[in-house]
Design goal:
Distance between the termini of chain A: 82 Å
Shape of chain A: globular
Mean pLDDT of chain A: 91
CATH topology of the largest domain in chain B: Rossmann fold
Structural class of chain B: alpha/beta
Mean pLDDT of chain B: 97
CATH superfamily of the largest domain in chain B: Thiamin diphosphate (ThDP)-binding fold, Pyr/PP domains
Number of helices of chain A: 12
Largest sheet of chain A: 5 strands, parallel
Number of domains of chain A: 1
CATH architecture of chain A: 3-Layer(aba) Sandwich
CATH architecture of the largest domain in chain B: 3-Layer(aba) Sandwich
Structural class of chain A: alpha/beta
Number of helices of chain B: 11
Helix content of chain B: 25-40%
Oligomer: heterodimer
CATH class of the largest domain in chain B: Alpha Beta
Strand content of chain B: 15-25%
Largest sheet of chain B: 7 strands, mixed
CATH topology of chain A: Rossmann fold
CATH class of chain A: Alpha Beta
Radius of gyration of chain B: 19 Å
Order of helices and strands of chain B: EHEHEHEHEHEHEEEEHEEHEHEHH
Helix content of chain A: 25-40%
Order of helices and strands of chain A: HHEHHHEHEEEHEHEHHHH
Radius of gyration of chain A: 23 Å
Number of domains of chain B: 2
């Protein structure tokens, strides 16, 4: 049942044909350019987030996915509005693809009242209800289980929507991950599971995580297709994912896609990532998906340096406005700590406690 | 009115809510073809079909977490944990996800699930079919925790839970399933969440309990009446958020308090009730607060003499009341 594709460095060279969900379909120039421009936008937004943190302009932490843009963009671009994204802590930039306004994303980093969670969760643990992005927790893989339930509901409701469930290589060691995939297989749910295999779960290498070479083989245990793809080749990722989305949307059930990629930086802003060799980092930087795509576009006469400059100018303007919005936004009032616990308010209970005195008049009491 | 057992009241509530609202569905182990380990869901598969009465894989984590996801997009799931002893694989789903989703999304994402959990001892169930672990969930703001003690409340609270917009854990005691009967209305009714009830009025001492031990407490109160002690009995019904006014008002009248819980002693609901009374009604007390609880051992032992030693009993409750009143 499970199929496997070795890394496909030539995927970009195959000629696109249609967008019917066929993985070998051709891609229009417009799509190719959009894939590139979104990768560039994700990179720009994330590098800005890193810079702002290093400048001490927001606190907490950030979990950059720089280097993984081909996977982020190829899997989450062009979802329907009602489709859900189930993100992990490193999938901040998947919001950009879903359409969450940048100003809300930076407000999230700054933990302001204007952020989607009004300053409750840590930076980067960001959901967005209006566009169906689950607000993630930090317990690894939990978003997959919730996402699987959403897919179950979509099936019960006979809706044509799907769930794009994102996780990392480390998550595949957890029982949650397997319960989710098993359940989705049993009920043939409309969900696509993406494992962003960046070789490291914080400081633990893939070899310490699993005895298998390709994580996609795990789909075999759950009765649906699993495929491994070069996660730095945005066209390959896009093609494979479109086919899986098409299958999910048309009742064909789930797919597991392993995208082999790499995070350039440490697990978080406070992790220098010194457990990795400089040679390994350099190797993966040489496989940077962005210049790779630039060369591909140039080969197809879809590239100009001035277009990139235009894009960067546009992104930087948008980012500057978003950062300004975040920095000018207020924090929530302290007492808002007490809100959104239940559908009813607990403020009165917490803030005003009545002291009772006895109404009995027994001698012992008086 | 119809004479109903506790388990029939649960079955009726599920049936009525599934007829009323097509978003309601049941998922759990053996809930369909078998109709539940105790037959709480008997006949539902036949009436509502396999898409709404779902025999799930044997995996409590995904039973609960898939329900959370489904509830986020408009469903009203009623998952079941067959024995509360088996709830641990769902702890992340309950404590980190269900309890915190509304909070961490500033109210923009919510999960109105009703998790039915069969709990409790006194049935020779042994270590892993008898536990009362209500305390774990009382400690999680964001969750509502219910524990009915009568058929009327079993029906009314379950219907209220399914209609409620918060995640609810509904603890149903297996020893109550067929041991008590009550005339309950055949019409639609709900019991308000968050409200305790005075089961028996009295003036000498307040006794607070819930679930199965509520029934023991009422029996103890009846026997104490014969000895000339008037016991006011309060049934919490909702364990979290707790209706503290119910027992504070009562203690302000009686000046004495006994708490009866099936869960073991340390940091159980009795600890919280004691703390609330000590903080907010210190002047009212004429005697030390007494707790009747299971001992601090890991779980209920199986052998009959050991189980009997473990469980609260009418005699133990009477003894605590006498001690308090005689102080």
């Amino acid at each position: 049942m499970a199929t496997k594709t070795k890394e496909r460095p030539l995927a970009l060279e195959t000629e696109p044909n249609s967008q019917s969900g066929n993985g070998t379909a051709p891609l229009s120039p417009e799509i190719l350019k959009r894939l590139y421009s979104y990768m560039l936008k994700c990179r720009t937004v994330e590098e800005k987030a890193r810079t702002l943190f290093k400048q001490g302009r927001y606190s907490g932490n950030y979990y950059p996915a720089v280097g993984q843009e081909a996977t982020t963009v190829g899997t989450t671009i062009d979802l329907e509005e009602a489709d859900y994204i189930a993100p992990s802590h490193r999938d901040f930039s998947s919001h950009i693809l879903k359409g969450t306004p940048l100003k809300f994303l930076y407000a999230q980093l700054y933990a302001r009242k204007t952020s989607p969670d009004q300053g409750r969760s840590s930076p980067a643990h960001c959901g967005y209800a209006p566009l169906n992005v689950i607000t993630p927790s930090s317990t690894i893989a939990a978003q997959l289980n919730i996402g699987t339930g959403i897919a179950h509901a979509y099936k019960m409701q006979k809706k044509p929507n799907i769930v794009m469930a994102l996780s990392g290589d480390g998550s595949t060691s957890l029982g949650f991950w397997h319960e989710a995939l098993n359940f989705a297989g049993v009920y043939k749910l409309p969900i696509v599971y993406i494992v962003q295999n960046n070789l490291w779960a914080e400081s633990v290498s893939l070899k310490q995580q699993t005895a298998v070479e390709d994580l996609s083989i795990k789909a075999q245990a759950y009765g649906f297709p699993g495929i491994t793809v070069d996660g730095n080749d945005v066209v390959a990722v896009y093609r494979v994912t479109r086919e899986a989305i098409h299958r999910a949307r048309t009742g064909g059930g789930p797919t597991l896609i392993e995208c082999k990629t790499y995070r350039w930086y440490g697990h978080s802003m406070i992790d220098p990532g010194t457990y990795r060799s400089p040679e390994e980092i350099e190797y993966w930087k040489s496989k940077d998906p962005i210049p790779f795509m630039e060369r591909y576009l140039a080969k197809h006469n879809l590239w100009s340096d001035s277009w990139k400059e235009e894009l960067l100018q546009q992104f930087n303007k948008e980012i500057d406005e978003a950062v300004e919005f975040a920095e000018k936004s207020p924090y929530a009032e302290p007492e808002e700590c007490l809100d959104h616990v239940y559908s009813f308010s607990i403020r009165e209970r917490e803030l005003n406690r009545k002291i009772w005195t006895s109404s009995a008049t027994t001698p012992a009491n008086k | 009115m119809a004479l109903s057992t506790y388990i029939d009241a649960i079955n009726t509530a599920l049936t009525e809510e599934m007829r009323r609202d097509e978003r309601v569905y049941i998922i759990g182990e053996d809930v369909g073809v078998m109709g539940g380990a105790f037959k709480a869901t008997k006949g539902l598969l036949e009436e509502f079909g396999p898409e709404r009465v779902i025999d799930s894989p044997l995996a409590e984590g995904i039973i609960v977490s898939s329900s959370i996801g489904a509830a986020m997009v408009g469903m009203r799931p009623v998952p079941e944990i067959q024995f509360s002893d088996f709830i641990t694989p769902a702890m992340d789903a309950l404590t980190q996800q269900a309890a915190k989703l509304r909070y961490r999304s500033a109210g923009t994402q919510t999960c109105p699930i009703t998790l039915r959990v069969c709990y409790g001892g006194g049935v020779s169930g042994g270590l892993y079919h008898s536990q009362t672990n209500t305390t774990w969930f009382i400690h999680e703001p964001g969750l509502i925790v219910l524990a009915p003690s009568t058929p009327y409340d079993a029906k009314g609270l379950l219907k209220a839970a399914i209609r409620d917009d918060n995640p609810v854990i509904y603890f149903e005691h297996k020893k109550l399933y067929r041991s008590i009967k009550e005339e309950i209305p055949e019409d639609d009714f709900v019991v308000p969440i968050g409200k305790a009830i005075v089961r028996r009025e009295g003036k000498d001492v307040t006794a607070v309990s819930y679930g199965y031990t509520m029934q023991l407490t009422l029996q103890a109160a009846e026997k104490m009446q014969e000895k000339g002690v008037s016991v006011e009995v309060i049934d919490l019904r909702t364990l979290s958020p707790i209706d503290k006014d119910s027992f504070l008002e009562s203690v302000a009248e009686t000046s004495r308090l006994v708490i009866v819980q099936e869960d073991h002693r340390t940091l159980g609901i009795g600890s919280e009730i004691s703390a609330i009374v000590a903080e907010e009604a210190f002047d009212c007390l004429d005697a030390p607060i007494a707790r009747v609880t299971a001992p601090d051992v890991p779980a209920i032992p199986f052998a009959a003499p050991l189980e009997k030693f473990y469980m609260p009993s009418v005699e133990k409750i009477m003894s605590a009341i006498e001690r308090t009143v005689g102080y």
